[in-house]
User: Which sequence fits this backbone?
């Protein structure tokens, strides 16, 4: 008896007797696996194992497929990998007959491996699985998903809605999207929306926002990060925020006041487009702040420094007041006030 | 000389008047004055050059005249002889003389002596053989006048004469008619000569030569003489002239010596010999260069031969002694050193020979029986000159005596890896076997037996076929050993529960008895036991770590004191620690060997963790989060641990690590999310 069949036999002993169908499927797969076939046939056999209920079987099949060159993978194998990642991301994958002990990292390492397998295909068909799950494992997956621009935004929105645990990685991926250039770059409106989502997550996912700020060099977030780094904050949050500030400070210093002003205006436009921003005090605050930033911009462009500073100082005060009145969140207020003050100091 | 020539002419003129024969010119009259008796001359003995020394084997000259008036005379070259050479000579001459009007028509003749009268030989019309020496001067090997007498003219003559240098044959003119009446007579006839070198051979003679051998005592001078055959040729001793290497001695065991004579190199040589050998002489013998027949020079000696010089204890060896001397005297003794190596016992296997030891008179053919292993020397001695010259001869031969017991030991039983280790992988799975056998002739008969080592707890798979017979052999570790099921479930386990090991045994059969070597165990070392796990468990990455990436480790790294260390991963982990400052993390574990990974991690519940884990290549790490949360952790503690997890995983991803997902793990349904306890990071370390 060759090795794969023996392995299958061991599984037979440890599997639950009630899962006869699964056991039969396992044995059949094992026998098939033992058969000498061409490389393509072997690949397809491995691909067929991706549907096995035992996560160990799936994990080993993924690892063996990953050990092959991409060119050796059949279309069926490629499709099976993509499908499996999407199933794992959406909870549609077969339920393993066995639960794992604390020290068993099979599933975690399997997901990293499966993500790598789909990533190396560079197939847009794998985008959903990567967006919903793969981005949690590697930064290059986040950049890959973000590189699709507006095409990936609904998937990230879906992930945000369905998978709260994925949100930190979604935030970083949004940041990569916001910094995207070239043909897939987001439109102004889409980018503003993304910035608004990042900012809105700063309370609940401060570490992720700090990481996103570093990833996409979002210098406008420095005042928000400074708030995160308050002495009363959790030490991990504080250290990550301080690290982000340290890393962003040089880029912020070399950026022109006008560029900083425009970027601040983008953030403002973003969170002023969110739900509830078009009525009440928030609407008034948004309108007023947008006017002030536009006014300041005109002064800066015209070289009228003092009027520009005066307008920016007024915006800073208004943003701070808006926070106390509940018209802006703490993060929104900090972003506008902090940047207005910083830009004024640069004039 | 001119006066002599005028006197001769007057005498010849009177003889011509008497005979009525016309003569014309005097030739060579003065040359005759130097002629000497050939029998009294000494042949040259000085050394000559070795090139072109051979004389021609034959030569001739022939003349014919018809109605010649007067007889003009003539001579031709017969040949050139570098050394004095004795030749057989045949000469002939006959000229008829016919008178012509107005003189009386008489007729006459002259032979080899030419014109003769009562005054003796006139030298007119005389035949001659003349030597012009290479060093100058001349002489006559033959003169016709030597045949002059009262009888009828001598027309033919044969003799043995000595020629040397450029040799000419000719006849002189005859001026018998009164001058200037040259036409008083006419001559018709012929004259000629043929010579041929007398053949000879060369030998060496001496007083002490018996039956072609010079039996030479040491320290005694011997007189040796070149001995040509024939010794004389006619009236002359056969000429012998040593040339080239001259007297040459070739010892039996030394370089050849040339011109060895202590008195120079002549026909007679004096020499004191120190060794036996062959003496020859290179010489020109009667005009022909040749080497003498070899002469054996034999010093007093004994020659001992044994029927075998490599024997086994108890073997009988026949000794044969040859006395190399003219008068064989009885041998004095045989001896064996060490004395205990041989004994007077046994028999010469039906040859009815006496024992060498203790037999009187001492025999020249006898037997010895060797009784102890080791090296022995057999010696035979003889006093060959009982008259008091103190000449004593002996001969020795060495004998190697080996034990009559055979021996076999295993010199090598080892795999190709360090310390003879191995795996079942191609290129690492051939076990080399080498046995040392005594006697060596048994080497091809060595039988090998390879069995599972009884000194461990592993059931190592048997070989399908035993190794090939012979002192040098090998076998391939069967792939049947690649069994995942054989690995122990206990952690960490002991090497004797894991290492493949074989017991190699070797044996020979000698004289009906079986001799076995001390068995040798060939087994895997710790490195190859660890590497065998990758083979047996068919780790999906298909990579078997090289031995040189294994390094000592201590900690939570699996089942061994060694681990796969990956420098790339370790360096990246250091960068993560730097990026994570001011916080720190604790590495719970990096390396896991495949068996530990498969059987020991979470074995209480799981069927084994992922078979493709990068922990197996030192490229995965579990980083402890803080605060450590247990079953009784508060929500605040869990939240803090979660923040730690989020921050560290973000940093890890930025450095290119693969990080476990944050999503909940469906195989751990009781946990709301994947990681809180530790962050798993990994790299794919294919490079």
Assistant:
């Amino acid at each position: 008896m060759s090795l794969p069949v023996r392995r299958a036999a061991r599984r037979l002993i440890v599997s639950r007797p009630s899962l006869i169908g699964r056991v039969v499927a396992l044995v059949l797969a094992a026998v098939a696996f033992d058969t000498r076939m061409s490389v393509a046939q072997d690949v397809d056999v491995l691909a067929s194992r991706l549907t096995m209920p035992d996560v160990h079987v799936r994990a080993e099949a993924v690892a063996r497929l990953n050990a092959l060159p991409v060119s050796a993978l059949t279309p069926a194998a490629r499709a099976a990998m993509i499908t499996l990642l999407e199933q794992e991301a959406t909870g549609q994958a077969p339920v393993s007959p066995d639960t794992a002990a604390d020290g068993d990292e099979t599933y975690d390492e399997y997901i990293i491996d499966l993500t790598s397998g789909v990533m190396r295909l560079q197939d847009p068909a794998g985008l959903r699985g990567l967006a919903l799950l793969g981005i949690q494992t590697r930064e290059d997956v986040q950049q890959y998903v973000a590189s699709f621009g507006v095409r990936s935004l609904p998937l990230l929105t879906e992930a945000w809605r369905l998978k709260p645990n994925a949100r930190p990685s979604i935030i970083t991926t949004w940041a990569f999207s916001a910094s995207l250039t070239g043909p897939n770059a987001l439109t102004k409106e889409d980018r503003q929306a993304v910035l608004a989502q990042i900012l809105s997550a700063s309370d609940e996912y401060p570490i992720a926002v700090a990481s996103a700020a570093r990833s996409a060099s979002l210098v406008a977030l420095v005042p928000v990060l400074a708030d995160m780094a308050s002495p009363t904050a959790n030490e991990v949050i504080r250290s990550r925020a301080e690290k982000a500030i340290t890393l962003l400070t040089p880029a912020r210093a070399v950026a022109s006041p006008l560029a900083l002003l425009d970027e601040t205006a983008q953030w403002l436009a973003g969170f002023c487009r969110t739900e509830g921003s078009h009525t009440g005090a928030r609407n008034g605050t948004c309108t007023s702040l947008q006017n002030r930033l536009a006014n300041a911009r005109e002064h800066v462009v015209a070289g009228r420094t003092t009027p520009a500073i005066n307008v920016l100082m007024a915006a800073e005060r208004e943003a701070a007041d808006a926070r106390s009145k509940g018209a802006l969140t703490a993060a929104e207020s900090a972003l506008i006030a902090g940047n207005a003050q910083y830009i004024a100091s640069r004039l | 000389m001119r006066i002599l020539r005028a006197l001769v002419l007057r005498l010849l003129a009177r003889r011509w008047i008497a005979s009525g024969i016309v003569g014309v010119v005097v030739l060579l009259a003065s040359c005759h004055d130097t002629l000497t008796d050939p029998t009294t001359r000494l042949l040259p003995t000085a050394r000559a050059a070795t090139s072109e020394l051979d004389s021609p084997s034959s030569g001739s000259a022939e003349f014919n005249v018809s109605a010649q008036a007067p007889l003009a005379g003539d001579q031709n070259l017969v040949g050139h002889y570098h050394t004095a050479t004795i030749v057989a000579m045949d000469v002939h001459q006959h000229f008829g003389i016919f008178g012509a009007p107005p003189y009386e028509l008489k007729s006459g003749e002259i032979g080899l002596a030419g014109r003769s009268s009562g005054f003796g030989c006139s030298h007119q019309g005389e035949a001659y053989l003349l030597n012009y020496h290479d060093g100058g001067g001349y002489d006559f090997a033959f003169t016709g006048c030597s045949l002059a007498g009262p009888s009828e003219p001598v027309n033919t003559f044969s003799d043995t004469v000595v020629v040397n240098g450029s040799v000419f044959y000719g006849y002189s003119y005859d001026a018998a008619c009164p001058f200037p009446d040259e036409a008083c007579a006419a001559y018709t006839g012929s004259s000629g000569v043929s010579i041929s070198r007398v053949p000879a051979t060369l030998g060496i003679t001496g007083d002490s030569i018996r039956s072609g051998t010079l039996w030479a005592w040491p320290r005694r001078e011997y007189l040796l003489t070149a001995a040509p055959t024939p010794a004389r040729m006619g009236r002359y001793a056969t000429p012998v002239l040593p040339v080239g290497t001259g007297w040459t001695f070739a010892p039996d065991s030394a370089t050849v010596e040339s011109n060895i004579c202590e008195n120079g190199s002549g026909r007679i040589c004096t020499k004191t010999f120190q060794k036996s050998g062959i003496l020859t002489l290179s010489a020109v013998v009667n005009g022909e260069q040749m080497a003498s027949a070899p002469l054996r020079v034999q010093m007093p000696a004994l020659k001992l031969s044994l029927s075998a010089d490599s024997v086994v204890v108890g073997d009988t060896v026949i000794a044969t002694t040859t006395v190399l001397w003219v008068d064989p005297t009885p041998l004095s003794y045989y001896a064996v050193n060490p004395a205990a190596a041989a004994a007077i016992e046994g028999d010469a296997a039906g040859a009815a020979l006496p024992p060498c030891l203790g037999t009187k008179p001492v025999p020249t053919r006898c037997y010895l029986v060797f009784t102890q292993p080791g090296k022995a020397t057999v010696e035979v001695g003889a006093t060959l000159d009982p008259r008091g010259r103190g000449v004593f001869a002996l001969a020795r031969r060495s004998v190697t005596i080996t034990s009559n017991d055979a021996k076999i030991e295993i010199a090598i039983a080892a795999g190709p890896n360090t310390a003879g280790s191995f795996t079942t992988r191609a290129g690492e799975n051939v076990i080399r076997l080498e046995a040392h056998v005594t006697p060596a002739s048994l080497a091809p008969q060595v039988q090998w037996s390879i069995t599972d080592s009884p000194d461990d707890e592993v059931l190592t798979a048997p070989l399908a076929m035993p190794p090939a017979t012979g002192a040098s052999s090998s076998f391939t570790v069967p792939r049947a050993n690649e069994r995942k099921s054989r690995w122990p479930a206990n952690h960490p386990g002991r090497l004797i529960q894991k290492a493949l090991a074989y017991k190699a045994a070797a044996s020979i059969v000698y004289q009906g008895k079986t001799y076995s070597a001390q068995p040798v165990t060939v087994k895997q070392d710790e490195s190859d036991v660890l590497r065998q796990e990758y083979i047996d468990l068919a780790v999906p990455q298909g990579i078997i770590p090289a031995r040189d990436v294994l390094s000592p480790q201590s900690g939570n790294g699996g089942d061994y004191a060694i681990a796969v260390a990956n420098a790339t991963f370790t360096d990246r982990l250091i960068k993560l620690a730097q990026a994570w400052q001011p916080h720190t993390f604790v590495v719970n574990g990096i390396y896991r060997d495949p068996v530990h990974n498969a059987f020991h991690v979470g074995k209480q519940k799981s069927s084994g963790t992922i078979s493709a884990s990068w922990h197996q290549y030192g490229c995965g790490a579990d980083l402890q989060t803080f605060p450590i949360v247990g079953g009784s952790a508060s929500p605040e503690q869990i939240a803090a641990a979660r923040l730690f997890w989020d921050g560290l995983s973000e940093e890890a991803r930025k450095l290119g690590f693969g990080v476990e997902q944050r999503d909940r793990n469906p195989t751990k349904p009781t946990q709301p999310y994947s990681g809180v306890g530790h962050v798993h990071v990994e790299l794919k370390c294919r490079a």
